[in-house]
Every structure is written in structure tokens, then in C-alpha cells.
Amino acid sequence: MRRIVLAPGRDAPVRRGHPWIFSRAIAEGLSDAEPGEPVRVVAAGGAFVGVGYVNPRTTIAVRICALEDTALDVAFIRRRVAAALALRRELLPSATALRVVNGEGDGLPGIVVDRYGDVLVCQVLTAGAARLVPLLTDVLQDLLAPCSIVERSEGGVRAEEGLAGERRLLAGVDPDVPLVIDEGDMRFLVDVLHGQKTGFFLDQRETRALVCRLSAGRRVLNAFAYTGALSVAAARGGAVEVVSVDSSAPALELARQAWGANGLPEAQGRFVAADVFEFLRAEREPFDLVILDPPPFVRRRRDLAPGLRGYKDVNLQAFRRLAPGGWLVTCSCSQHVAREAFRDVVASAAADAGRPAVLVAEAGHPADHPVALAHPEGEYLKILLLRA
Prior knowledge:
30% of the residues lie in helices and 30% in strands. The protein is an alpha/beta fold.
């Protein structure tokens, strides 16, 4: 492996478990490295620190895979995936739709694997991870024996890594879409070929359970509804009406199909293809429960200020649409928005709306989305339960 030498005093965060090394922390070995090349990292005095892979064109120059001196080979990937599966089997033994590998949280930076029954969908986000795809495919076939392994590797991170988007079949047969998955007594539809991310938001499993508990006898708005999973949860919980709003007509069509697949009455649900901000400003009837689960408004650190304004605006309009004593479930999946900043901007929205609110509960990533303890950047999901 190529040898990367850190500047004096820059090895401590890695030894504590932070998996990223920024370019400014590197003294030697970076300039002529190839993107994705495996590297052995040492401290300024030569002591071993860890192994990982490098990309000299990105700010995060090295992503650490292990703190032991090991090759990044098929045996290493097998150990990592086997450990990830063991964790899920202990904590979510009956789940058939779940995240199998969560990047740095499972010691495989840049790699996400989601399972939908016998179909696996991989997101490969970095140059180093891209080099491991053939080995990863072999391991997944051996350990899980899926019918299909699909790669859905797209987005800004890949562009920064110098990678084009990739959408392809890695192994098995082309899956029929939409797939049908079960979560408790609910049924959802997943388009793993064309949907957002890997096709479904597995990280909102616990939010769906919460919405189900809160919805009895209430009028519910599911803003940014996507394929309607939270809408189904609200209806299953006894909502008298569920209004699902999203700008994507194809996503709403899947939401309608999921509604029917769950045997829910047509009159109980309304599906609106519209801009959520415009809908909230125009709607005059109050809702007893509003759910905000928007796409990330802050995709890059430099977008923080306008993104926070977006979060404030949408929460302000939601507070204005809430009935007295109404519930707001509001979320941010922007990695660059800290939990404290999200709370502050929602509190500001409540104040501007003249709706004093109580924070009843907070949540984040579920058990199948583990995060390294020393890697707060991995805690992208923030969920607040508020009563106005």
C-alpha cells in the first residue's frame, strides 16, 4: 500500500475513531496518489495509524477502513459485512427491508447497501469504494444469496470524487418494479431503479410507527410525501383524512398504489401534486398532525445559510396550518445541519408563527443505520416531535 504520513499531532482524531483525514493533515504521500488507491497511514514519527483509501482531489483525502494493519481484500469485506449482518439480526431479527451496510458506521466508508426482500441495492459514493465493488458483490452473493444486486450510485459526492453516476445490475436478474415490501401490517411499494436514493426511506421506520400512534381521529398532512409510506401509517393509525403532497407525480402515483395495496378507503386519502411551500401558503383548513420530511435543503456546507432559511420557511407555514394543540413531526436529513441549529430554526419558526411549541421527543438514525461514535458527521437525520 501507498504510505501516507500525517503532520505532527494529526493522528489523534483517527485513533479516537474518526474515519476521515483531511488533506491539510497530511505531510507526505498525497500529491501523486491515484483516486481510490489503498493506503497505509502512519503518524509523523512513523507509528502505524490505520489503513484506508485516498483521493487527492477531495477535501476528505483519506477515509479510514481499519485501525489494524490489514489488506483491503475480499476477506476484509467479508468480515465487515458479516459483522453488520450480525448486528441487524440481533436488533431487527424479523425485518426484511432494512439497511445492511451503512458506510462509516459499519467500517466500509462510501458503501451503502439496502435490502428489500431478495433484492439488494448498493450506493457506492467514493473512488475507493468503487474499487471494492467486485469484491463486495461476491461477498453479498455469498452471505445473502439475493436474486438481484442493483447499483444506484449517483449524486454530488460522486461528482466531487471524480466519478460519473452509475445505475446498473451487478448480479442476478433485473428486478420487477415496483417491489412490494412489508413493515408490520403495512405494505409499501419501492422503485429501486428510478426512485430517490435506493428507492425508499428505510431510516424513517420509527417515524412511521410514531405517526401511526398519533393519527387516530385526526386530519393529517404528509408534506413531501414521496411514495406515501407515512400516509399509509397515518391511515392505519385511524386518521379521518390524510392529505399527501409532493411535487413528483410519479412518486404520488406509487403512493396511490400503496394506498390501494393496504386496502384503505379512497375517500380517506387525497393526493396533491404541488410545491409544498405553495400548498402550505394556500391551504386554509387546519390539520391536527403535520409531517415534514423534506429532501436535504443543505447538500453542501456552503449552502447552509439558504438551506436554514428554507427549513424556517417550511416550518413557519406548517405551524400556521396546525390546529390548536396540533402535532408537528419535522425532520432534516441534511448532514451539514447540526441538531442544535435545526432546533433553533424550528423554534424561530414557531415564534414567528405565534405558536409556542413544546418539544416532546427527539429522534435520529435507527438501529440499522449505525454511526461511529467519534464521527458526528454521520448523524445526518434529525427528527423533532412538537406540540403547538
